[in-house]
Amino acid sequence: MKKKSVRFETEVIHAGYDSSLHQGSLVPPLYQTSTFTFTTAELGEKRFAGLEDGYIYSRLGNPTVKILEERVAALEKGEVALAFSSGMAAVSAVLFTLTKTGDHILCSQGVYGCTFGFLQLLKEKYEISHDFSRMDSVETLEKEILPNTACIYIETPINPTMKLVDLQMVAKVAKEKGIPVVVDNTFCSPYLQNPISLGCDIVIHSATKYIGGHGDVIAGLVVGNKEFINRVARTTQKDIGGIISPFDAWLLLRGLKTLPVRMDRHSENANQLFQFLKKHPKVDSIYYPGDPDHEDYQIMKKQMKQPGGLLSFSIKGTKKTAQRLMNQLKLIKVAVSLGDTETLIQHPATMTHAVVPEEERRNMGFDDTLLRLSVGLEAWEDLKDDLEQALEKI
Length: 394
Ligand SMILES: Cc1ncc(COP(=O)(O)O)c(C=O)c1O
Prior knowledge:
This protein has helices at about 10-15, 40-50, 65-75, 85-100, 115-125, 140-145, 165-175, 190, 225-240, 245-255, 260-280, 295-305, 320-330, 360-365, 380-390, and strands at about 80-85, 105-110, 130-135, 150-155, 180-185, 200-205, 220-225, 285, 310-315, 335, 345, 370-375.
């Protein structure tokens, strides 16, 4: 298909789709089918043998899903992408593909709770070990990479403490040692940060979040080079089967079109709430990459377009104080997930990170008084008023 533009705001609407190949349909059609018919038995034989391109069965590929994959690969500046039924299906497929028994994974200091759970499973069942690293200097990194390290796995910003990892620095060290770097880019979306352009190898998204953007889909995406994505598609994804449904891919294509507009507004709203919370006497500390006092502010300026729509803050008091605050909110919803139009608040210690042992949570840098806000698209003044009235009552 001819390339229409290289600008993100245009790619997000047009990449991967040529309406002339689909009866002129302006919007990509939904191929809601499980299988594809062959005009002859010989054609079926050729498709199975890989001698002719074409669709066979939707677990192996689907035209609506393909458009999504091509679009996201373009947005992440990678070669190809693969869509999954959830972010966790994407995370597990990538780690299964990259590791074998006896290997080691070096992880950023914090990861999403279920990714942490999956790392435990790899350790207990397959003897694939892992360590968490601050990844804050070349020296620490070089010391922590072991002879059997099969990959480096990073979340940045780190969930829920919003610490950042310098992706260019890690990619440089990893390249010298021939180790692939995987980045879970969920918190940024492809609009705010492109790890592949910074030298990393593989990008993962929970598309449930900003890519979908409307809280109505669970899905995942992986972007990488052709060789790696083929390996994931032919082995882990085909045989484990965590594929996305064509309808969910269609919803993601719809959500994606407004990604830049939404992300600008998420970031602006989060910045306004940060200004309010930072000065509030009942707030103990605030974790927001756009805070000039944030320890990683310079890394944010270097690798992110904007600070994004997430911030965490700890309340003076105890776990009960944090829970009381949540219970007083009227507009802001108590829910996990992020990147939706609605503003959501959650309590990581008892929700997303409940599976992480308390000591490990302390190592990650948070306790029971921490709350995470996913700032939505409402008028920020209304969100501020809601937080203000709830803070008054605790
Ligand atoms: C950073 C991050 N990665 C991965 C996931 C898992 O995604 P999903 O819920 O789509 O499986 C989440 C979910 O919250 C997440 O926040």
